[in-house]
Write a structure and sequence with these properties.
- Two copies of one chain form a homodimer.
- Chain A has 351 residues and is α/β, with parallel strands linked by helices.
- Helix content of chain A is 41%, strand content 17%.
- The first copy, chain A, has a seven-stranded mixed sheet with strand order 1-9-8-7-4-2-3, sandwiched between helices. In chain A, strands 10-12-11 form a three-stranded antiparallel sheet, with no helix packed on it. In chain A, strands 5-6 form a two-stranded antiparallel ribbon.
- In chain A, a hairpin with a 7-residue loop joins strand 11 and strand 12.
- In chain A, helix 1 packs across helix 8, helix 2 crosses helix 3 and helix 9 packs parallel to helix 11.
- The longest helix of chain A is centred in the C-terminal third of the chain and has 22 residues.
- Chain A starts with 9 loop residues before the first helix and ends in an 11-residue tail after the last helix.
- Chains A and B meet through helix 2, helix 3 and helix 8 of A and helix 2, helix 3 and helix 8 of B.
């Protein structure tokens, strides 16, 4: 990131090609798919994917159990594309059986969109089972895999999907500023002219790369140099399997330690992804979330406020350049912060 | 850029606020305008500005004398917004008189869009005179000031404009990955719901900053940290006046030196911005552009191929962290490269 890359220079063209090829390998797909990076945050990549693959007159069914599912609905509405919604509470995974019934009932639905790991709660949605249902009904599947891809196993060769969107700065541990989509080549080839936006047209972006290896519009060169390095470190750690192992161990240490201090998780362990964990807000007198947040921040640990509608909560992440030592240090900081607030044994109002 | 900023952290909120305030100062506007940064390349910022300020049913007149004017037309067409075009050859500035006549003739035109410095040729368009005509006809003006803002004097308090879009990585010498628009507050306040895109909705982006100082969607934190530093260095150099002086001196050295070697500029000096200079391709036998380009690149100087339709040409930039020494080194590299090609006195076919 300390080097000024010329975006039309041979070395940078090679860097872009390396990133694109590596993403396909990680997804477990070959020549059937292409990787198309796009400038901006993850939401930009999701919007580019939806806007490019969905024809203006086509209807999309969005599976919603959190804020990121809702965001896809908001994107579709803003683009003027028809959206139907199947919704579940934030503490329950989406259900393939309900999807099956919905697709059987409505032939007009051409696409299904689902979030892989819904970071609103930290829940893991069963995208493989969803993909099986969508393929059986011959519809197209778009997966927002923002905080899952790279750390949650995904056998792309065995899962039928039109596109999967993610970004450099979640499980790949790169810096923010670029997202990408992995798209079925035949689907993308047929998507010329669909996009509502010039900047977010994945088809034109892809054609640009195919033509001369260059980005259509100025790329965030330093961010991409960091992404290239992050992908090398991802491979060094053993790829998806290695990262899944470390994050899972982070989650285990975190959840066991927090339960030991009296905290309760929102989700049952069987649907809890090793990405971010939601804890219910304790009802113990003396526990004040702002003091808790600030106390942890002072000790070097920044946590997340809750984003739930079903319960008062807060969240702690398991991803990033963190291992067992950092998770144990975080738990020690939680314990010290609780003591500084004068809180002993925690109670949580059961929901 | 070596620090991992938390995007919802107080220090980063302060950094964003500092950038936004500084941009208004540089534009010479006060509380009448707001600065709204947006993730992505400069084109993303231009599209966000056009998409947010122009109502879906409104017609826009685009003044075109190069590729970036044409790009605004392409953006409007892609969004399904009506566009009219007034076009000039690439070696002539846009003409306020023709604009005056066009606006008098067509009441349906609500907005005018113009490129400040058209880097296709390096020409400076007379945005102040354009703004005067647009204001007299009571239409709204949108300026793509991508490669001008920060180095070309612009008296925002005396120029009536709805919005001006630019980016961190041109005259501010930051790294690529973020653009911004400076928008009249009353115009932006009235623009809710116009945008064709969720990601590129400047109104919602602005409301987000106003609500809690935070970005709606993950910002490119490292890019913004670099932009903050770049703005401090811009101020240290004496702001726009200081940068204009250095770039103008770069241009003078470049143009005089290249003319001394027999090269001819496309533009007359009176319309040549101190940003990028277009040279006509020599017709001297033995001059081979690819060899010339590669010879300069080997010596550490990367130039630009031409982008003109009116003449065969190439371009050399005057901006970035470059001063008289680097411009003289570039000229020495040009001279040595010409010699290595066996080319003596240059001839250029007059157009």
């Amino acid at each position: 990131m300390l080097r000024d890359w010329g975006s039309r220079d041979k070395a940078f063209i090679a860097l872009t090609a390396r990133i694109r090829a590596r993403l396909l390998e990680i997804a477990g797909v070959g020549a059937s798919h292409v990787a198309v990076p796009v400038q901006g945050s993850g939401t930009f990549a999701v919007e580019a994917t939806l806007g490019t693959l969905i024809r203006p007159d086509a209807k999309t069914l969005v599976l919603v159990n959190g804020a990121y599912g809702k965001r896809m609905v908001a994107i579709l509405e803003r683009m003027g594309r028809e959206a139907a919604v199947l919704e579940w509470p934030e503490d329950r995974p989406v259900e393939p059986q309900a999807l099956d019934a919905a697709l059987a009932a409505e032939a007009a639905i051409r696409h299904v969109a689902v979030v892989h790991c819904e970071t609103t709660s930290g829940i893991l949605n069963p995208v493989e089972a969803v993909a099986e249902v969508v393929a059986r009904h011959d519809r197209g599947l778009i997966i927002d895999s923002m905080s899952a891809f790279g750390a949650i196993p995904f056998a792309g060769a065995e899962v039928e999907f039109d596109a999967l969107a993610a970004s450099a700065n979640k499980c790949f541990e790169g810096v923010p500023g670029v997202g990408f989509a992995i798209v079925a080549k035949d689907v993308l080839a047929a998507a010329a002219g669909n996009a509502h936006s010039l900047s977010l047209d994945l088809h034109a972006q892809w054609r640009g790369f195919e033509a001369n290896g260059q980005w259509r519009f100025t790329p965030p060169t330093h961010v991409l140099a960091a992404f290239d390095q992050a992908l090398a470190e991802h491979a060094d750690e053993g790829g998806v399997a290695g990262r899944y192992r470390r994050y899972s161990e982070n989650r285990r240490i975190l959840v066991e330690g927090m339960r030991g201090l009296g905290f309760e998780t929102l989700l049952g362990d069987e649907v809890q992804a090793p990405i971010i964990v939601t804890f219910l807000m304790p009802s113990t007198p003396g526990f004040d979330f702002q003091l808790f947040y600030d106390g942890l921040a002072e000790r070097g640990f920044v946590i997340y406020p809750g984003k739930l509608t079903v319960a008062d909560s807060f969240r702690i992440g398991c991803i990033g350049r963190l291992g067992p030592d950092e998770m144990r240090q975080a738990l020690a900081a939680v314990e010290v912060t609780l003591k500084s607030m004068g809180v002993g044994v925690l109670e949580t109002v059961s929901r």
